[in-house]
Amino acid sequence: MREFELLRHVYDANARLPGSVVIPPGDDMGAVRFGNNTLLVTVDQLVEGVHFAPDTPIEKIGRKVVTRNLSDVAAMAALPVAAVAAGCLPRSMAEATANQLFDSMRATSLAFGCPLIGGDVSMHDGPMVLSVALFAEPGGVTPILRSGAKAGDLVCVTGELGGAMEDLAGCVHHLDFEPRIDLARKLAKMETLHSLIDLSDGLGRDLGHIAEMSGLHAVIEASKLPISTAAKHAAARDGQAAWRHALADGEDYELCFTVPAGTLLPTGVEGVRITTIGVMQPGPPGVTVQLPNGQKIAATELGWEHHT
Amino acid sequence: MREFELLRHVYDANARLPGSVVIPPGDDMGAVRFGNNTLLVTVDQLVEGVHFAPDTPIEKIGRKVVTRNLSDVAAMAALPVAAVAAGCLPRSMAEATANQLFDSMRATSLAFGCPLIGGDVSMHDGPMVLSVALFAEPGGVTPILRSGAKAGDLVCVTGELGGAMEDLAGCVHHLDFEPRIDLARKLAKMETLHSLIDLSDGLGRDLGHIAEMSGLHAVIEASKLPISTAAKHAAARDGQAAWRHALADGEDYELCFTVPAGTLLPTGVEGVRITTIGVMQPGPPGVTVQLPNGQKIAATELGWEHHT
Fold first, then answer.
1. Which residues 57-86 of A are in CB contact (within 8 Å) with B?
2. CB within 8 Å: A85 and B9
3. What is the rounded CA–CA span in Å between residue B16 and residue B38?
C-alpha cells in the first residue's frame, strides 16, 4: 500500500462532507466553522526509524513534532491557538527521557502561543510514534489555499533551500528550523497571496501540489533557486548539482507562494530572503525546471518522498 | 517508565499554562478560549497489541478509535464538532484494508456530527498505531469536570458494567459500545451534575479520579452495581464475583456522575438505566466498596489498567 493511494481514496470522500466544513482534507490544514470563527486543524506524526533516527536527541524530536505542525499553520497564514499530543512510547524508555520529550513539546508549543492542553500516552514494545494535532484561527487573515494560483502568477519562495539533513556544526535544518508563521502573516497582509504551501516534501513535489490543485503548470528556473549553504555542502559531497538538492531534498519548511504578475516583492522580510523563481502558466498540471543550458525537465519527478 | 509518572510530570506543569486555557490537562478533555466560544479537545490512541488484537476486524478498529474519543466528549457533556486522524500503518497493509479503516473512521465520525477534516498517514515496519483528536463545543452546557463533586453527593452510573471483553454472540462491548453523548447532555440539562467522567479504566479507578480531584472519598455498595450480562458470563467462567467484574473490568464507556444529595433521578433515560450506587463523603481521596457481608475494601486497587 502506498500513502498516495490512500490519500486519493480519502479526498474522493470530500464531496460527502457536511456544509460546516470550510476546508476539506487535502490542504495544509482542514477547517470547520466554530461559533462565529473558523477552526483550522492539522495533525502530523513523527515515527522512529521513518522520520528520525533512534539516536536523535529527545528534545529535538519533541520540538520537531510541534514545529512540523506549526509549519502547516504558516502555510495557511493562520494563528496557532492550542495543541494536543499523543505518544506511543517504547516500554523501555526511561522516565527522565519521557519527561524531557514532554517538556520539549510543551516549551515549543508555548513559545508559539499554542499551549498543549491534552494528550494520551501508551507504551508498547515497538518504535516511538508521536502525533501532534494543532488548532489555529484565521486571526484576521483569510486562509490561503493551495488551489488559488492564477495563470501568470509569480512563483516565490522564502529562505534558502536544500540540504536539510546536513549537519552544519551541530545545526541540522530539519530539526532546528523556525516555522514561518510571522513571516506568512506579514506577507499575507502586505501582498495578495493567491496560493501558499509549506515545503516539506521538496519544492518540486510541493509546488506540484499548487499546480495540481490550481489546474496550472509551474515553470521555474534552476538558476534562480535560493540555494542553502547546506545544499552546497551536500552537492560538494555527492557531486549532484546544488539546484537539484534545493529542488528535491525536502524538509525545508520554507514557504512557496504565488502572487499576481507584476507584484513588486521585497527582497527580504524580517531578514528572510524572498525569491521569485518562476511563473504559473496554463497547461497540464505539473512543474517544469529550466536549466541554465536551456534544458527543461519535469521537477515533480525529483521531489523527495518520506521513507514511508 | 510508567504512564502514571509521566502524567504526574505533565500535570505539574499546568500551573504555567496561559490564561487562555479553560481546562488544563487532567480531565476528559482540555479546553481553551476560541473566539466567543470554548474549544474542547481530546486525543486518544489505539495501538495494535496493546488496545486491540491483530485479528480484530479493521472496521471495528476504525470505529473504536473514534468512539473512544466521543466517550470523552460525553464525559464533558459537550457537542462534537470535527476530528482529525493520524495512522502509522504496517507497510504490509493492503490498500483495501487501509481504505476500509479510513471509511470506518469517516462514517463513525460523521454519524456523530464531527466530520474528519484532516489526517496524516505514515507507513513503517511495526504495529498499527492510530490516534484521533476530536474537537467539541459546550453547545449551551457548561462542561462538567471531574473535580466538582461535593460531600454528600450521590454517585450514579449509566447502563450496565463489566465484561467488556466478552464476546456475546458476536457483540464485544469494548468495540461496539455507543458513546453516551446525547445521554450526557440530557442528564446535564435535567439535573445538576456536580462531576462527570466516562468509564474507560474501570469504575474503581475512574471514580477514584473524581474522588482524587474533588478531595473526597467515595463509598459505593457492591449490591447496587448494575451488572451486565457479559459480566455475569465472565463471572460464571472465572469464578470471580460478578460485582468485581463490574467494578474492575474497564472499557464500559458508560458515565459515572455525582448529583446533590436528595436528587430524585429517573431510573432510566432513553432506555438506558441510571443507578445510584453510593455517596461522596469527606475523607482521604479514594473509593471504598461495601460488600453484602459488611466487609469494606479499597476499590481503587481493583481497577483495570490498559496493558501499557
1. 81-82, 84-86
2. no
3. 20
CA atoms within 13 A on the CB side of A232: 6
What distance in Å separates residue A186's CA from the closest CA in chain B? 22
Q: Which fold has domain A146-298?
A: Phosphoribosyl-aminoimidazole Synthetase; Chain A, domain 2 (3.90.650)
**Given pLDDT bands bounded at 50, 70 and 90, which one contains residue B307?**
very low
Phi, psi of B213 (to 5 degrees): -80, -15
For chain B, state the CA radius of gyration: 19
Chain A: give the shortest CA distance to residue B267, in Å. Answer: 34
B138 touches chain A (CB under 8 A): no
Q: Which of helix, strand or coil describes residue B22?
A: strand
pLDDT digits (tens, 9 = 90+) for A127-178: 999 999 999 999 999 999 999 999 999 999 999 999 999 999 999 999 999 9
Q: Where are the domains of chain B?
A: 3-137, 146-298
User: A29 and chain B: CB distance < 8 Å anywhere?
Assistant: yes
Residue B298 CA to residue B99 CA, distance in Å, equals 46
Q: Quick one: pLDDT band at residue A305, thresholds 50, 70, 90?
A: very low
Of B106, B133, B308, the CB nearest to A13: B106
Minimal Cα distance from B25: which residue of A? A118
Please give the pLDDT value at position A300. Answer: 61
User: Domain A3-137 in CATH: superfamily?
Assistant: PurM-like, N-terminal domain (3.30.1330.10)
Its pTM stands at 0.95
